Amino acid sequence: MADMSEIEKRFDIHEIAKNKKQDLDRYQCNIYCCHSTGCKSSGSDEILELMHKTIEEYNLQDKVRIVATGCMGLCAQGPLIRVEIKGQKDVLYKRIDPATSRSIIIEHIVPALKLEAGQQITLPDYLQKYVLSLDLPFFKKQEKVVLKMAGHLDPEDIQEYMANGGYLALEKVLKTMTPQQVIEEIKKSGLRGRGGAGFSTGMKWEFASKVKAVDDKFIICNGDEGDPGAYMDRSILESNPHSVIEGMMIAAYAIGATEGWFYIRAEYPLAVERIEKAIKACKKSRLLGNNIMGTDFSFNIDIRLGAGAFVCGEETALIHSIEGNRGTPRPRPPYPTDKGLWGKPSCINNVETLANITSIILKGADWFSSFGTATSKGTKVFALTGQVEHSGLIEVPMGTTINEIVNEIGGGVPNGKKLKAVQTGGPSGGVIPTEYINLPLCYDELKKVGSIMGSGGMIVIDDSSDMVDLAKFYLDFTVDESCGKCAPCRIGGKQMLMLLEKISKGRGTKEDIDLLRQIATAMQKASLCGLGQTAPNPVLSTLRFFSNEYEAKVAKK
Which of 348, 378, 541 is nearest to 456 (CA)? Predict the structure, then answer.
């Protein structure tokens, strides 16, 4: 049997990274084809297949590398292909079909590879119409930390992740830092949970670390993203699964966890597939199991699939679901850090939260906290959707204004319409009218206007939208997703929905509007978990900023 030194040498991440870089550097051209859920649904599988055949047809396998990569951001323009040729300007193509992908190789890549140094390819006119400018504010005004490698990395190749600095943060903490030093660095960074509540990640880790476990202690990654229009976590898992795994392993070391659990909704089959492959690759490389990197740290990861219940995003409901029970919340305390999965101490972090960890460890807390505001540090990933020119996945510093996101990065409201409001925080969030267009997007400022950060959903609403119907849409969702365990949420939500339906049909009264506010307040104060406590937010915020629309429907009666 090989001794530990031989095993370490065989799986040395520095040697693997060096060899992989040399392998990647030999290619003159890299073709990155988006192969995330959005682009796959638009035909990227067929595109990849035909491109591989065309490369073989022209005998370019040693010069051109085709990469099935993760999300490139501009999801509504997919399938997307990015061509990077040494000495040439990068070109991004939009809405590609298989035939056009073949033309890109024949009319762009083949002639470009024959050019002398300093010369630039001139694309034929019929290809020009597929080109997206990389100088768009959508690309230029983002600050990518979590999404830095998304669209530039093969998510299913652990060696390519290592070639880009992967698992160096894990090595650093295992070999040069104590668990408490790791916790202090995360606390110093100011990182707050990206799943919605915004609690200090470092504080949560510290609470978990101080609990003495008799045997097991768990770290859980919450990938049960359920907000309508939100797909941040799904894209991170699909685009760079190893970044989340590495963050989880660092968290486990910091709090003394022996096992990790991914809880991912079953409607995310590609994310599940890529996490499964990443875990297998880690085990093969001895990055999971006993004595990782020759240290005393031992850790394993497993996966559980969620059945699509929105309430299972709440941590105690999530724990019940992993255990095989019905996903219903329970009162706290005890908090999961004291009594969580199977009654053992458990720390739960969101996907995006864990994906931030490696950058903080490698670049330092001061670097991370240089982004954002005084109380909301770092960057935030948003799913920008709705009535906006450039919808998609973006990452910006905390504190970026609504105006910058909607009118600059997003390109404004299309079709001659005007911006009416922005809805943040999913079905538990609120609507923010145009009078707050310069509001910095951070935890505290959003709270002041009756909304929340949530996990990062942002829906742009134009002036053709009916705000009563909008509130009814979100409340209908939360009523349907209520677990029914507590009366304030189960009954209150249904009563509010009935009142909204009555008002929207022109049969409501002013007393109904008052009653809406009373029930909403009762739900906020008495509901068992965050779902019921925040479900009235869309109604209350539309009543606050668009009360005229409610009153107009009542007046018609």
Answer: 378
Distance of CA 294 to the CA centre of its chain: 32
**Distance between CA atoms of 489 and 297, rounded to whole angstroms?**
44
Residue type, 461: I
3-state DSSP assignment of residue 262: strand
Same topology between domain 165-367 and domain 467-556: no
- Phi-psi map region of 30: left, alpha, beta (phi>0 left; psi -120 to 50 alpha): beta
Q: Position of tokens 């458990």?
A: 346
| Whole-number pLDDT of residue 196 | 76
Q: What is the pLDDT of residue 11?
A: 65
* Burial class, 76, CB count within 10 angstroms (exposed 0-12 / middle 13-18 / buried 19+): middle
Q: How long is the chain?
A: 557
Greatest CA separation for the chain: 85
- Rounded Cα distance between 412 and 403, Å, is 9
Would you list the DSSP string of 48-90?
Answer: HHHHHHHHHHTT-TTTEEEEEE---S-GGG-S-EEEEETTS--
CATH number of this structure's domain 467-556: 1.20.1440.230
Q: Look-up: residue for tokens 């991912």?
A: 264
Task: Assess contact for 509 and 557: CB atoms under 8 A.
Answer: yes
Which residue shows structure tokens 């670390």?
209
At the topology level, CATH places domain 27-136 in: Glutaredoxin (3.40.30)
Reported as type and span, the H/E element at residue 220 is strand 218-223
C-alpha span between 185 and 52 (Å, rounded) = 45
For residue 556, pLDDT beyond 80: no
Residue 42 in contact with residue 71, Cβ under 8 Å? no
- Tens of pLDDT along 382-431? 999 999 999 999 999 999 999 999 999 999 999 999 999 999 988 888 99
Each as own residue / partner, the long-range contacts of residues 501-506 (CB below 8 Å, 24 or more positions apart, any chain) are: 501/472, 503/468, 503/550, 503/553, 503/554, 504/466, 504/468, 504/469, 504/472, 504/553, 506/553, 506/556, 506/557
Query: How many whole angstroms separate alpha carbon 392 and alpha carbon 458?
Result: 10
pTM for the structure as a whole: 0.95
Write 479-482 long-range contacts (CB < 8 A, 24+): 479/535, 481/226, 481/309, 481/310, 481/311, 481/427, 481/531, 482/311, 482/531, 482/532, 482/535
Fold of 379-462: Ubiquitin-like (UB roll) (3.10.20)
The highest-level CATH class for domain 165-367 is: alpha beta
Bond into 333 cis (ω within 30): yes
| Count of CA atoms in the C-beta half-sphere (13 A) of 462 | 14
**CA distance linking residue 184 with residue 126, whole number of Å:** 56
Nearest CA-CA partner of 219 in 252, 193, 244, 241: 252
pLDDT digits (tens, 9 = 90+) for 194-239: 987 789 999 999 999 999 888 899 999 999 988 888 899 999 999 9
DSSP structure string for 4-40: HHHHHHHT-HHHHHHHHHHHHHT-SEEEEEE-SHHHH
